[in-house]
Design goal:
The chain is mainly α. It has one domain: Rossmann fold (3-Layer(aba) Sandwich), CATH 3.40.50.300. It has helices at about 10-20, 25-35, 40-50, 55-70, 85-100, 115-120, 160-175, 175-185, 195-210; strands at about 25, 80, 105-110, 125, 130-135, 155, 190.
């Protein structure tokens, strides 16, 4: 799945996971877990992610390669947040070729820039249990307090507006060129990413079915 930050890739990939029956592999979640655990990769990634920059291709690609080699990926997988540039796309082709596999379908979510800024800057997360909220679409019952555990809600550093806009600039510069690459290969389905979660999931599911036809 491809799309700018805030397009809903993670939410929709998790829903498609249940429909398609394959694991959802989020590069961002994997990196954040590495940061939380303080792994060598996580320590290298922490400062870069906080500034809205991309983690070096070599680190992300090797993390992805290792994950794709695990048994639960034998029957397929949904990649979310990778590849993010042409070099990563080339490396993904190599990783899959080594396993005699290939990309079946590339799903691209389309969302306007100001809608993305609104979505991302409104996100909050519980610093204690990790529960997620949004100031507009999913506010907590008490301002700044987690409904689940009473922990404090905080804004992730990469959800500050100045960082969000930088992340969107980086996406346009480095990731959006992938759309034309996959379009030329006949793999791309562009899907409107605005509307109810159910409606967007239906659009994505239809694109997957059409890709398999």
């Amino acid at each position: 799945m491809i799309g700018p930050p805030g397009a809903g890739k993670g939410t929709q990939a998790a829903r498609l996971k249940e429909i398609v029956g394959v694991p959802h592999l989020s590069a961002g979640d994997m990196l954040r877990e590495a940061v939380k655990r303080g792994t060598p990769l996580g320590m290298q990634a922490k400062e870069i992610m906080a500034q809205g920059e991309l983690v070096p291709d070599s680190l992300v690609s090797e993390m992805i390669a290792g994950r794709l080699g695990e048994p639960d990926c034998i029957g397929g997988f949904i990649l979310d947040g990778y590849p993010r540039n042409l070099a990563q796309a080339q490396r993904l082709d190599e990783i899959l070729s080594e396993r005699n596999r290939g990309i079946e379908r590339v799903l691209a979510l389309k969302v306007a820039t100001e809608e993305l800024v609104r979505r991302l800057t409104g996100r909050r997360v519980c610093e204690k249990c990790g529960a997620g909220y949004h100031l507009e679409s999913r506010p907590p019952r008490r301002s700044g307090v987690c409904d689940a555990c009473g922990g404090a809600l905080v804004q992730r550093p990469d959800d500050r507006e100045e960082v969000v806009r930088e992340r969107l600039r980086v996406y346009q510069e480095q990731t959006s060129p992938l759309l034309e690459v996959y379009r030329k290969r006949g793999l791309l389905s562009e899907v409107e990413g605005v509307g109810s979660m159910e409606a967007i999931t239906d659009r994505l599911s239809k694109a997957i079915r059409e890709g398999r036809a």
